[in-house]
Description:
Elements: E1 4-9, H1 16-25, E2 31-37, H2 48-58, E3 65-70, H3 74-80, E4 85-90, H4 93-108, E5 116-121, H5 131-139
Parallel strand pairs: 1-2, 1-4, 2-3, 4-5
Adenosine-5'-diphosphate binds at residues 9-11, 15, 17-18, 21, 88-89, 91, 95, 122, 126, 129-131.
Amino acid sequence: MERIAIFPGSFDPFTIGHKNIVDRALPLFDRIIIAIGVNSAKQPWMPLPERIDAIHFVFADEPQVEVDSFSGLAVDYARERNARFLLRGVRTCADFDYERNMADANRMLPAGKDIETILLPALPEYAAVSSSLVRELARFGAPYAHLLPYTNHHPYTNLIT
Length: 161
Ligand code: ADP
């Protein structure tokens, strides 16, 4: 049976920290589906089609990686995609508490009982990188391109500066 992992998140935007989690998880799974959770009540910083394009661009040479979007519960989406694993990254103790609670909550759902959450610790050099940091830097006109894995290569970058 194919080992498929869903990497769910907002990825608003997808950062070098997210990329590092995917790169390190590649040897663990046959396929990783980066799944952008869509929350229609919230206006994103980077529009969904551009987030999808940017992530496609980053993993253009990586056939194991797929990009998709979903709304609703990650475990329902995982079931739909025949994925048995949810991949998440952990930077801090606060992240760990949150992720453990989410993993427990997911396991209690009917769709989540056979789905295992796999947590990878952030590498120290990426532990301070977050999408919200990028958005804050952008808001104040500070440089943030070094935190994005596609800057200077991707045409959509122009739209977010
Ligand atoms: P969410 O809104 O679901 O938290 P994010 O897009 O912020 O989605 O993050 C998706 C996942 O990536 C989360 O598990 C988060 O902890 C992890 N993550 C975010 N930034 C980093 C980083 N710099 N290093 C490792 N993991 C990270």
